[in-house]
Amino acid sequence: MSFCDEVKKRFIRLSRGQRKVAQLVIENPNVVATHIASEVGKFIGVSESTVIRFCYAMDLSGYSELQERIRKDLSESKKVVTKEPLTIGKKHEYLFSEIMNRDVTSILNTIQYVDAENFQKATHYLHEAEEIYTLGFRQCAPSASYLTSMLENFGKKASQIQFDVNDIVKQIKRMDKDSLLFVIAFDSVLEDVLTILKIAKNKKVKVIAITNSTISLVRDYADISFVVGTQKQFSFEADTAASAIVHALIEGMTLLNRNHYKKYYNLNEQLDHDLRLLEEETIATK
């Protein structure tokens, strides 16, 4: 059994902070193998002592033995790869196709993790919810915004929770058993996100979540969860796959009542058309 397999086996018995270390070991072992304990702690938002306690929880003598075990696994599996994000200044003849193919691969890898029954159940949740709250902080905010916009286009009452204490409190107060909370959260999850999820579950709010990890703490609070991308991807690289799932869920929702949703979509299309005409007339009169 590899060390990563041992970590997965003991994951449920680890503390919350230790789980963050475990997640890094499983998904980015090369980072642990090449950085000291304090740097690893800063990278995932925990203390150096938490990293060391993780080692003890795994029956290791300390951080040095942790690195030795990981390096051994990496050497045996020949997976020692340095992950570097693509940069604007990178000279590459096929940069465009490389990026597009990476996104396609991310979506294809996501498909194998999507359970058909959960997908169908999620579309019903979206269709039946009287009010939908979307949540995505930091790098997940654009995906949450896209989801909110798509829902509004089809006449759903949707509100995006902002990264602001007053807005968070206001939105949580409005939630009830007929509400739906749709969370998009990648990598290290903010404590605020977990707090919102706990309160929502206490209020019997249904929760759908999209994460980029099979061991994300968010999944503990979700009625339905979807995992996007691949373990070797940076969180921002999973956005394309997340948007693909969002689009598919919205399409599935509209199929539950074609005429109802088509009416709202046509109204929005007509409004956009009228606004364009108004803009053209305004420009013409200047």
TrEMBL record:
Pfam families: HTH_6, SIS
Classification via PROSITE patterns: HTH_RPIR (PS51071), SIS (PS51464)
CDD domains: SIS_RpiR
Record keywords, A-Z: DNA-binding, Transcription, Transcription regulation
Domain HTH rpiR-type intervals: 1-77
Keyword Transcription in record: yes
Organism: Ureibacillus suwonensis
Domain SIS, chain residue ranges per copy: 122-260
This protein's name: MurR/RpiR family transcriptional regulator
